[in-house]
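Onboarding guide, step 5: your first structure request.
Type a short instruction followed by the sequence, for example:

Predict the 3D structure of this protein.
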Amino acid sequence: MISKLIELLSKRDKEFLFFMVFFSIFISLIETIGVGVIMPFISVASDFSLIESNRYFNLIYNYFGFNSAINFVIVFGVGLVFFYVIRALFNYLYIYYLAKFTKGRYHIFAYRLFKNYMGHNYKDFIEKNSANIIKTIVNEANNLTFLMEQLLLMISEIFVITFIYTFLLYINWKMTLLLTIYLGINILFLKTTISPKIAKYGKLREEAQSSFYNILSSSIGNFKIFKLRGEEESIANKFAISSHNFAKANIINLSLAHLSRLFLEAIGFTLVVIIVIYLVYTNRDDISSHLSILMAFVLGLYRLMPSANRIVSSYHQILFVYKSLDIVHKELIYTPEELGDDSIEFKDKIRLKNISFSYIDGKDILKDINLDIKKGERVGIVGESGSGKSTLIDILIGLYLPNKGDIYIDDTKLDKNNLKSWRKKIGYIPQDIYLLDATIAQNVALSEEYDEQRVIKALKQANIYDFLVEHHDGLNTLTGENGVKLSGGQKQRVAIARALYHNPEVLVLDEATSALDSDTESKIMQEIYALGKDITMIIIAHRVSTLDGCDRVIKLNRGVIDE
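The system replies with C-alpha cells like these:
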C-alpha cells in the first residue's frame, strides 16, 4: 500500500508527507508530556513536603527564588494551563496541515486522472466505461484522500501510544506488560473478527457504486427508449439493488466501526479495574500509598485508549476504501499519448500505402489498403456494416496509426511527431452528435470563450444562422442537454458549424446524415458540397444517393477496396 501511495505522489507531496510524519512525532511527544506532567503537579499540590524531598522540585524552587510552597504550586498550575493551550494550538495546526495535505490531494488526483483520460489514445479510451471514468474521478479520488488522511492519523496515534507506553513502562514495567498482553489479545480479536468483514464490505461498496453509476448513465442516456417500452419500473428495481448494496456496505462499515470503539472503551474501564486489583493483590493492603502510580496509569490509559481506538478505526476505514487506491493507481500508471509539435503541410494529396489494421492480433479489419486522395477532392466511401469504413476514417484523421503500412501527407510520413498538427486540420462530423447543455455559440466553439465572427461565419456556412436569429435567440440560443431543444436537422447543422469553426482543410462525415430523412439529408449535403473546393471531403454513407456530389466513390468489402 505504501509503495503505491509513494508512486502516486509528486516530489513536493513526498516532502510534505515526511514533514507530516515528523510533525506527528512532535505532537506525540507533547501528548506524552501532557500526560506525564499532571502526576507531579497533583503530587506536590497534595503534599508540599515534596518540594523539599524531591530534588527536581527543590532545584526549581530555589532557582526561581520562590518564598512559599503555595506560590510554587500556583505558578506550576498556571504554567500547565499555558502548556495545554500551546498543546491545543499545535494539535489544531497539525489538523489543519493534515486537511490541507489530504483534501488538497483530491484536486491533484482528480486533475491528473482527468488529464490522463484525455491523454489516452483513442483505441484505449473507447474501451473505458464513461460511468466508471466519472466514478473514479469523483468518488475514488476522494476516497483515496480519505485513505491518506486515515493513514497519517494512524501513524500519529502509533507514535502517541509508543511514547506513552514507554512512560508507563518506566513507572511500572510489570503492570504495563500485563496490560499489554490483555490489550493485545483483545485487539487481535478485533482484527480477526471485524477487520475481514469491513474489507469484504469495502469491496461490495466499490462494486455497488460502479453499478450505481452505470445504471444512472444508461438510464439518462436511454430515457426515451425506457419510457416508450414502459421499463421505468424495471430500471428502477435495478437501481434499487445497487443503491441498497451501496447503503448496506456503508451501514455495516459504520456499525462495525462503532462496535470497535465501544469494545475498546469497555476494555479501557476493565484495565483500570485490573490495575486496582493488581495493586491490592501485590501489596496486600489498600492502595493509598500507590495513588500516584494509579493516577499515572489512569491518565496514561485515558490518553492511550482513544489513540488505540483511532488506530483500529483508521485501519478499518483504510480497509473499507482500499480498493480506491488500486483503482486510482491503475489509472494513473497508464502512459498517456505523447505527440510531438512538428508541423505538417497539406498541399497535394493524402496517400495510404499498404495499410493494414486490427484491434485483435490476427483479425485484420483493413487489409493492404492503397489509396490516394487529392487536395480539394470529394471522396465517398461505401460498404456494408463491418466492412471497415469507420476504421479507415479513424486512420485517415489520425486517431489510429496503422499496424502495418504508412500514411503520407504530400511527401511527409504521418507519425507521432506531426500527428497533432494533422489532427488540427480535420473537421469531423460524426453520426452521433453530442451537444453541450449550453448556447449555440458555446457548442460551435466547444468553449465558453469564442470568436463571435468565426461562429457566425460557421453557422452561415451550415445554413442555420438566419433561422436562429429569426426564431430563437441567435448565438445565445440554448440547446438543452444533448440538443434536446433542437430537431435532428438543426443538430446536424450545429455539428457542421462546429466542424467548420476552425477552418479545416479536410472535412470528414462519418455517416453524419444517416439518421435524417431523405429530403433533409439532401438539403444538408447540397450545403456541404457548396462549401467550396478548398476543403477536401471524405464522406461515409449508406445511401449511394448521398454521394452524388462526390468526385469518386470507393467501395470497401471486408476490409479491402473493391476495385
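Each response can be followed by summary notes, for example: The CA atoms of residues 215 and 239 lie 6 Å apart.
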